[in-house]
TrEMBL record:
Function text: Catalyzes the ATP-dependent phosphorylation of L-homoserine to L-homoserine phosphate.
Species of the source: Ureibacillus manganicus DSM 26584
PROSITE patterns linked to this entry: GHMP_KINASES_ATP (PS00627)
Protein name: Homoserine kinase
Keyword Kinase carried by entry: yes
Catalytic reaction list: L-homoserine + ATP = O-phospho-L-homoserine + ADP + H(+)
Residues that, per the record, bind ATP: P88, F89, A90, R91, G92, L93, G94, S95, S96, A97, A98
Keyword entries, A-Z: Amino-acid biosynthesis, ATP-binding, Cytoplasm, Kinase, Nucleotide-binding, Threonine biosynthesis, Transferase
Domain GHMP kinase C-terminal, chain residue ranges per copy: 203-265
Domain GHMP kinase N-terminal: 60-141
GO biological process: threonine biosynthetic process
Length: 304
C-alpha cells in the first residue's frame, strides 16, 4: 500500500548566550515536508527562500535519509518530497538541524525503523556534532543537553516558558564554520570559571523560570559572543534598543548573524513595531516556543 506523510520540524535557536553548544530552544518557525514513496527520487522546493537548482546527491535531506537507512542496514527507497521552509539558510535559526531531523524522520518512515525519541536525539546530535539545535528540533520546547563520548544525549526538557521571542534577521549569511573560526582556542582558568558560572546561572534561571535572571545571563556570555559580535550587523545597537524597550535579554541565535530577544508576551506587537522602525534592514519576527518537536501526520491517499 502506498503511503504519504506530512513531516513538520521546528527551527531552533541555540546557546541563548552562554549555553554554548548545549542549550536549545524550538521556535514556531517550521520546515515542512510532504513525503510519498515512488519509483525515483524527486525533491521539490516550494518556498522562495529555498534554492531552485541543486544536485540530488548533495541535498542534505537526501544525504541524511540515505545515511540513516544505511546505519540500520536498510536500503532507502526513492521518495517524492515537497518541501517548504520558514527558516532562512545560514542565519542561526537551525535550518541545517531541522533538515537533519527531517531526513532522519524520512528514513524512519520509509524504512519502518521504529526509532525512539532517544534514537532521534542521538543520531541528529551526532551528525550535528552537538545537541543544542538537534534536540530542540526533535523535542520542541527548551532543551538543556549534554552528549557523551559515545554520542548518547542526556536532556532536561522544559515546555512551559511563559514568554515570547523576537528574532532580528539581517540580509547577510554567516556560516557556522566562519563564526567558529573567530573563537579562541584556549581561555585562562579564571576566565573559564566565570564563563562556566554564567552558563550555570543561565541554566538554573531557565529551570526556575526566573525571567529577569534569564535575561541578565543571556547577555553575560564569555565563550563566543565577545568574539563573534564583530561579525554581526548592529550587534550592540540591537542589544541596547531591545533592553530599553522591555526585553528580558538579547543574544546571538546560535552562531548568528540573527539575534534573538526574550520578551514578556504582553509587549510583543509594540516591541516589534519599535524594532521595525529602528532596524529597517532587518527582518523582525515575533514568535513563540514550539510546543512540540518533529511531528508526523499520515495523509490518506484516495484511490481513483
Amino acid at each position: 500500500m502506498s503511503k504519504k506523510w506530512q513531516i513538520t520540524v521546528p527551527g531552533s535557536t541555540a546557546n541563548l548566550g552562554p549555553g554554548f553548544d548545549s542549550i536549545g530552544l524550538g521556535l514556531s518557525l517550521y520546515l515542512s515536508l510532504t513525503v510519498s514513496l515512488q519509483d525515483k527520487w524527486e525533491i521539490i522546493h516550494l518556498s522562495s527562500g529555498l534554492p531552485k537548482t541543486f544536485n540530488l546527491e548533495d541535498h542534505l535531506i537526501y544525504k541524511i535519509a540515505t545515511a540513516t537507512a544505511a546505519r540500520f542496514n536498510m536500503q532507502m527507497p526513492p521518495c517524492r518530497i515537497e518541501m517548504e521552509s520558514e527558516l532562512p539558510f545560514a542565519r542561526g535559526l537551525g535550518s541545517s538541524a531541522a533538515a537533519i531531523v527531517a531526513g532522519i524522520e524520512v528514513a524512519n518512515l520509509a524504512c519502518n525503523l521504529n526509532l525512539s525519541v532517544q534514537d532521534k536525539c542521538n543520531i541528529s546530535s551526532q551528525i550535528e556534532g552537538h545537541p543544542d539545535n538537534a534536540t530542540a528540533s526533535v523535542l520542541g520546547g527548551l532543551t538543556i543537553s549534554a552528549m557523551d563520548e559515545n554520542g548518547v544525549v542526556d536532556t532536561i526538557h522544559i515546555t512551559d516558558l511563559d514568554s515570547s521571542f523576537v528574532v532580528f534577521i539581517p540580509e547577510v549569511e554567516l556560516k557556522t564554520s566562519e563564526a567558529r573560526g573567530v573563537l579562541p582556542e584556549t581561555f585562562d582558568r579564571q576566565y573559564s570559571v566565570l564563563g562556566s558560572a554564567n552558563a550555570n546561572m543561565l541554566a538554573a534561571a531557565l529551570v526556575a523560570k526566573d525571567y529577569a535572571r534569564i535575561g541578565r545571563y543571556m547577555e553575560a556570555d564569555l565563550f563566543h559572543e565577545p568574539f563573534r559580535a564583530q561579525l554581526i550587523p548592529q550587534y550592540d545597537a540591537i542589544v541596547n534598543a531591545a533592553k530599553a524597550n522591555g526585553a528580558f535579554g538579547t543574544a546571538l541565535s546560535g552562531a548568528g548573524p540573527t539575534m534573538i530577544s526574550m520578551i514578556p508576551s504582553n509587549i510583543g506587537s509594540q516591541f516589534v513595531r519599535t524594532m521595525d522602525e529602528l532596524f529597517p534592514l532587518h527582518k523582525i519576527i515575533l514568535t513563540k516556543v514550539a510546543p512540540t518537536g518533529v511531528n508526523v501526520t499520515e495523509i490518506p491517499i484516495v484511490s481513483k
